[in-house]
RagB/SusD family nutrient uptake outer membrane protein (Runella defluvii), 599 residues
Amino acid sequence: MFCINKGIGKLLVCATVLLTGCQDLLEPAIENNRQLDASAYLPSDSRFPFGILLNGYNRIPTNSWSFNDVATDDAVSNDQNNAYLKMATGQWTANNNPANQWTNCFAGIQYLNITLGEVDKVQWVTDPVANKLFSTRIKGEAYGLRALLMYHLLQTHAGKGVGGQMLGVPILTKVQTTSDNYNLPRASFEDCLKQIYQDLDSADIKLPLDYRDITLGQEAQIPAKYGKVTLEQYNRAFGVTFSGLFTGRIAKAVRAQTALLAASPAFNNGNAIKWTDAANAAAAVLNLSGGLSAIPSAAASGLTWYSNTTEIGNLKDGANPPEIIWRNNWGENRDLEQANFPPTLFGNGRINPTQNLVDAFPMLNGYPISNPLSGYNPADPYTNRDPRLRMFILVNGATAGVNNTAINTTANGTTNDALNRVETSTRTGYYLRKLLRQDVNLNPTSASNQRHYKPHIRYTEIALAYAEAANEAFGPTGTGANTYSAYDVIRAIRRRAGIGLTNNDPYLESAKASKETMRQLIRDERRLELCFEGFRFWDLRRWNLQLTEPAKGVSIQNGVYTILPAVQDRVFKTHMKYGPVPYSEILKYSALEQNEGWN
């Protein structure tokens, strides 16, 4: 389905290391323009195949922020050229798809298949035992990355064909050459799942749980699956030097992500076992870190992982803070702040949270603002609210930036932060706060950068996946084969946020009596905890929920709060719960079937 430069005979590999760790693995820097044949490189030249493998890493869709929230009820953008804004307002087509991952992921899979075909031909090190360990590790990485890219292909392009069958994408497990048949049909969704799980099993078998150095006297900690190897041989192939690369822990987390997708209403025909599988897959990840203890407490800065200045500053290459399972490293910059700080802080205010999202944050006592017991006052809407509201969203009167500048978003405000005042002003009455480091200075006279990183997978994501699946499989308080329930997870997450600390969260206590009420609460918590991280766009679709709720805002004038019911309409048709196969691919390959409703 995807041929690199029309075949591997002319393969251009420009691998830029976006991962942490491994900086000193390749000398000189990874930049290969080599022919892939037996005479092109020496068996001892490991740079070429490793550079190909790194292309798989570089194509991970979560390497950067998508902010596809702009195509949901959670956010709008003041940038009229924003691709997701255009998608949300009726311009989403099979040949204009900002969410498209077809070319990117199939290119990555081609590189990974090349790696799997070449890895055993390479002499990585002279020690034959260590050499075998290196080959084993790299094959494990390639299998894991191939599964991850296939997961993203399913998330983005799986759907019902015109005949009603749930289809995935073509399954490619070997290198495509110029002589191969590219006109391949889409495999069934189920067959794609089987391939992902098979690849993850292969990765898990070959990879250590984590990369770490085993010290002298602790040789018994070397996993038995690697046979009789010395401490030096093990550390050389699986030591802390390789932190940041794919691991067995990551393979388990990707399995949990995939299983949740497979169990979701849009992809599941009512098979309850899939919910059990998803719950158990998520539990397998959480149990590696103590079950519920895998959800870092507020004291451990589990909520503010993106702005924990000391923690981030002290992170070693490839190391993860308690909240993170896997991350990349953006290094020192101010890109997010430049895009999203309010105008008075020299930012462009691009991502504007909606009133819809603001209303989803409960009161401090745990009740939704629509509940009569909440104590919500629409004339004083930000008082006694869930603390996460002010952590994640910059509301009128809140402070931001290095000088704790008060931000005025009122309709009659006198600064450019005011509602709709200039091009970079908010369209909803709110600015983004989450993900941004307030110690970044954008003032041209004293600009400063700070260190950032982008998570691929967080423990909170996996915990919420467990809660969702466990509630469907076992009910709110059931545990199945595990030791904690959906209720237990949501209680831990809400208490970390500061909800229900003084009143034992009576709304949560009442919700545990009903699977349906708990389902809504779990979805609400997922919306809040993972906001602006690229989940809402996919969650609404896999849940078969309404996609056309207008984005709301607020106009504040003379202390009066007026809800703006339709800052921006959402124009989606029913079939758009599934993304399209690219139109260009449909034109080229007659065997490819388009998802129902897309032209």
Notes: Residues 4-58+100-246 form a domain with the Serine Threonine Protein Phosphatase 5, Tetratricopeptide repeat fold (CATH 1.25.40). The chain has a mean pLDDT of 92.
